[in-house]
Amino acid sequence: MKKILVVAAALLVSFASFAYEDNRDAQGNIQKGPYETNEFFDNFFVGAGLGVNVAMDNFSGIIKKSVDLETGFAFPALDLYIGKWLEPCYGVRFGWQGLADNIYDTDFNFNYFHFDFLWNINNFFWGYKEDRFYSAIPYLHGGFAKTKYGKGMAGGFGLLNNFRLTEPLALTLDLRATGANTDLIPVQTGNYVQTTATLGIVWTFGKKNWTRKSTSAAEAAAAVAAAEAAAAAAEAAKQKAEANEKALADQNKALADENQALKDQLGKGGNGAAFDELLSKPMIVYFEIGQATLSNKEKAHLDYVVKNIVSKGEGVKFTVSGNADSKTGTKARNAQLAQQRADYLFKLLTGEYGLSADQFEVKSNGGNDIFSKAELNRAVIIEKK
Fold it and tell me: What is the pLDDT of residues 245-254, one digit of tens each?
């Protein structure tokens, strides 16, 4: 028991001889699991190590005499293993430990097939850190051991010291204590206790890093929130489109009603008192603020007025008066805008509709307040002279 405690103390000294790197966030808090489980073939590793076994006991007979030691003998050790990290803190591995010793020209032939449960205490206490240089990994092991003299169950504990060289490659110092029954050696008393130290390398393949579930949950929540926001925006856009469509339909109906009313007033052929009354009234088209061209709605209005009233007034002369509202803009700008509007309408009448230029007198009223509302003053008025 005393020697086992000595071995345990050596393992703890090895563990305590390195500083631990924390994985902290911007606020200085240690970031730990839980972590997502990777695919089956991710985080597998294979390793090999070469070192020495030291067998300890109150030996007698052939073992004691072979090395002239009172407490034990040493022989080479070879480790081969394959394992998998189930998550950053826990893993398993299966391995073989062996090599032969020659005692009085007799092969000792030590073989130990073992299964280990690994615990990465750096990741457990200080959070997973992908580029951490050193990790201390205590483990429990158990399995089947065989020598020339016997066979039986064996087990114990160890400390795997892992030194990261590159993403897949690491250097290892594996310290292990193994206990077994005395069938492994040619003595009848005492316990067979063996310590092992091997230096080796380990190679990790498949996916090698880990994702915290909390991060994934936050990303998932953000994705859900984004999807909900997109759906709400799409619904709002749909409702707006439906409202615009209804407003346009209402405008078209109003224009149609207005056109029908004009038709009813014109009567057949556009002659008679009703037509004279229409012709004597000012005809107005409205412009948007700061604009010198008509909107589609107002252009449709003008189209009907010209085709059904102005063009039917044969020999009639008209004034085309441009206006701007005096509430906005400077006096000079309003005069310019009113003139541009009048010129624009004159070009439509003579160019697009092919009416005679002699029928029209173009003038600008500048900024004015003919109507009480400013938007009604942004207009061109066509009047019979």
Answer: 888 888 878 8
